[in-house]
Specification:
By secondary structure, the chain is an alpha/beta fold. The chain folds into 2 domains: 2-137 and 299-329, Alpha-Beta Complex (Quinone Oxidoreductase, Chain A, domain 1), CATH 3.90.180; 142-276, NAD(P)-binding Rossmann-like Domain (Rossmann fold, 3-Layer(aba) Sandwich), CATH 3.40.50. 28% of the residues lie in helices and 28% in strands. The protein has 10 helices and 17 strands. The protein has helices spanning 38-45, 131-136, 138-151, 168-179, 191-199, 213-221, 236-242, 264-269, 282-294, 310-319, and strands at 2-8, 11-16, 26-35, 60-68, 80-83, 86-87, 101-102, 114-118, 122-124, 159-162, 183-188, 204-207, 224-229, 243-251, 273-276, 301-306, 325-329. Strands 3, 4, 5, 8, 9, 16 and 17 form a 7-stranded mixed β-sheet that branches. A 6-stranded parallel β-sheet has the order 12-11-10-13-14-15, sandwiched between helices. A two-stranded antiparallel ribbon has the order 1-2. Helix 7 links the parallel strand 13 and strand 14. The protein is globular and about 60 Å long.
């Protein structure tokens, strides 16, 4: 079969590799589409923990089950599925166990024509989604759902600020908030992305690159009951200022590193909750897919590429030129 393979740091190519077979408890899926995440770019750059080469990257995928191993219900064969990339979470919904992994490292991922995966990671594809939309859903949708609902417990009519709109997880957070009847606002470094977010239901937006943006934006649209962030860095202090008394700041990344200072007096005086989150439990995944189906949510697909053009897809993500998910079509 053909697959995208990272042979070493900054060494990405499309190669012929052995087609997997179904081990006990596993199923082989003929992938119809896969999607990129920033994680794949960081692995390619050599900027991710636990690197292993060669590796087939990719955490998101959707396709058709073509084979099952011993111990797996044969009724899965022929079914349209999406893959839960959150492997070996464990039994405690509060947090993942030490053996937790994400599909695509160290286990080969979805940027291939076929994949073998534990059958417990399969879920029926929401019927209203096409293959590209279905492949766009798993990792970012799961991360956003746990952040917004399982951790921050967003409710209808609450104000929520989503920092850095344009990436897949932030867009899912916006779509989930709209469906929940909340009042979402967003930030970005791009006027165009703010306009597109408005079309998806954002009530207002701000350029976080503008001097003093947080004070002015807070006066007109804040304070916020829930704030969703993946950047961190020194801008985190602005989010503390924008949070309402008793507010919740939930974060799942730190692309700008750690804040040089955490305004602890503001945090305790405003009774704020700082909530870390990573991926999600099997229950979170089930609830997320049900929520997407119930509200007929369509993931935002920014660009579609063929597998032979995977290097262009990576380059687009590295440049930050997408609004939504970048999908590799494998049909």
């Amino acid at each position: 079969m053909k697959a995208a393979v990272i042979q070493g740091i900054q060494e990405l190519l499309v190669d012929s590799v052995p087609t997997p077979s179904a081990a006990p408890g596993e199923a082989v899926v003929r992938l119809r589409a896969a999607a990129l995440n920033h994680r794949d770019v960081w692995i390619k750059r050599g900027a991710y923990a636990g690197l292993k080469f060669p590796i087939i990257p990719g955490s998101d995928g959707a396709g058709v089950v073509v084979e099952v191993g011993p111990g797996v219900d044969e009724s899965w064969v022929g079914r349209d599925v999406i893959l839960n990339p959150s492997l070996d979470w464990g039994h405690d919904p509060k947090a993942q166990e030490p053996r937790f992994q994400i599909l695509g490292l160290p286990r080969d991922g979805t940027l291939a024509e076929y994949i073998s995966i534990p059958a417990s990671q399969l879920a029926p594809k929401p019927s209203h989604l096409d293959w590209a939309e279905a492949a766009a859903l798993p990792l970012a949708g799961l991360t956003a759902f746990r952040a917004v609902f399982s951790r921050a417990h967003l409710k209808a009519h609450e104000k929520i600020l989503i920092n850095g709109i344009g990436a897949g997880t932030a867009l899912f957070a916006l779509q989930f908030a709209v469906a929940a009847g909340a009042l979402p606002c967003v930030t970005s470094s791009s006027e165009e992305k703010l306009r597109k977010a408005h079309d998806l239901g954002a009530k207002a937006g701000a350029l976080y690159t503008a001097s003093g943006w947080a004070r002015e934006f807070g006066e007109h649209h804040g304070p916020f009951d829930v704030i969703v962030d993946s950047a961190g860095g020194d801008g985190f202090g602005d989010l503390v200022d924008l949070a309402a008394a008793g507010g919740r700041i939930v974060f799942f990344g730190a692309t700008r590193g750690n804040p040089s200072e955490l305004p602890m007096r503001k945090v305790f005086w405003k009774q704020l909750s700082l909530l870390g989150t990573t991926m999600g439990s099997p229950t979170d995944f089930q609830m997320m897919t049900a929520y997407v189906a119930r509200h007929a949510i369509h993931p935002v697909v920014s660009h579609r590429f063929k597998l032979d053009d995977v290097a262009q897809a990576f380059a687009l993500m590295e440049a930050g030129g997408q609004f939504g998910k970048i999908v590799i079509e494998l049909e």
